[in-house]
Write a structure and sequence with these properties.
Elements lengths: L8 E2 H10 L8 E8 L3 E8 L2 E5 L14 H7 L1 H5 L2 H5 L3 E8 L15 E9 L4 E2 L9 H4 L4 E3 L5 E6 L8 H13 L2 H5 L8 E7 L5 E7 L22 H8 L2 H11 L12 H15 L1 H10 L5 H19 L2
Parallel strand pairs: 1-11, 6-8
Antiparallel strand pairs: 2-9, 2-10, 3-4, 3-5, 5-6, 6-7, 10-11
Helix pairs in contact: 8-12, 9-10, 10-12
Length: 322
């Protein structure tokens, strides 16, 4: 049965959520940073002696391959079934980033052959992510050609006190920029160039997992002062506000989710689905920015903002996609 991979928040949205839920950890937390690769989310699991592959939102098939991930998994299915990993931990799902030639653009990792970089394991029985990777046989998976484990590549560390998260911003920004300037993973394969960012994973004293991401300016879906900035952008008018939340990256992500992940060619008849995704994503990811802008502009309503977002999105879709 499919399990969707969790949505990973920005540092700002994570800290905001912890405050809102009154769930600020009492002690500083150590985070391990994994290189965030720019590809497409893919996962697979064992079901009735078959390996089933999925994108972030859909079970895959020959008609819906998620940039070829279905084909990639199908080609190695026999080897996956024989691994010690599935023989000893058959309830675990594997999640990773599928990257390489023809999947995305603008980063050095696009130069390598299509490959899977595993970054998480999910137990379908306990409905929880695995904390201790030493308990599972990852090596039997990475012995397969073009399958890797992201923690076998350079990692980063930081300790964050969420009672004063601003103290961590400078270091988070600096480490993210290191990856942005030169992706450590693509460099391993001989390709020097831009990287996307870092995914940070840590655990509180109760073993609860806390995850967030920091992206380079090139890949953020809404404008911010720096990768880990906690500050709100102050737009002078509704057009400037729309420009700050409706970036090219967010629009392209909408096309990926609504069309590419489902194996559908972009078509004007599906534009309502595209617009719904864009509006809902902005409401989820930029709710604080919307509220702040309306507080500073009493004559502006959320309806006004969404109408402006819709108009710009329709124009972009017709020009860039059709």
């Amino acid at each position: 049965m499919m399990n969707k991979y969790e949505s990973i928040e920005s540092f700002k949205n994570l800290t905001k959520a912890l405050v809102a839920k009154q769930a600020i950890p009492p002690k500083p937390i150590k985070f391990i940073g994994e290189v965030k690769l720019h590809g497409t989310n893919g996962g697979f699991f064992l079901e009735n002696n078959r390996i089933i592959s999925q994108s972030r939102n859909n079970i895959l098939s020959q008609e819906n391959t998620n940039s070829g991930f279905f084909n990639f998994v199908s080609e190695i299915e026999a080897r996956l079934l024989s691994t010690k990993f599935f023989q000893t931990t058959p309830t675990l799902m594997v999640f990773g980033e599928f990257v390489g030639r023809g999947i995305q653009s603008g980063v050095a990792i696009n130069n390598i052959p299509k490959s899977l970089f595993i970054f998480d394991f999910f137990d379908t029985e306990t409905q929880s992510f695995i904390n201790d990777f030493s308990t599972i046989d990852i090596q039997s998976l990475t012995s397969i050609d073009n399958v890797y484990f992201i923690r076998d590549f350079p990692l980063f560390e930081i300790e964050i006190d969420f009672k004063n998260p601003a103290e961590a911003v400078e270091k988070l920004d600096r480490l993210t920029q290191i990856v942005a300037n030169e992706c450590p993973v693509s460099k391993h394969f001989g390709y020097v160039g831009d990287g996307e960012g870092i995914v940070w994973k840590g655990y509180d004293d109760n073993g609860k997992r806390i995850v967030f991401k920091t992206k380079s300016e090139k890949f953020v879906v809404q404008k911010q002062k720096s990768p880990a900035s906690l500050e709100l952008e102050n737009a002078k008018d509704i057009q400037e506000f729309v420009d700050s939340v409706l970036t090219e990256n967010r629009l392209n992500q909408g096309v990926d989710v609504v069309f590419k992940e489902k194996g559908i060619e972009p078509d004007i008849k599906y534009i309502r689905d595209f617009l719904d995704w864009i509006r809902n994503d902005i409401k989820k990811e930029a709710s604080d920015m919307i509220l702040n802008f309306m507080n500073n502009n009493k004559d502006v309503t959320e309806s006004n903002i969404m109408k402006a977002i819709t108009n710009v999105s329709v124009t972009w879709f017709k020009k860039k996609v059709l």
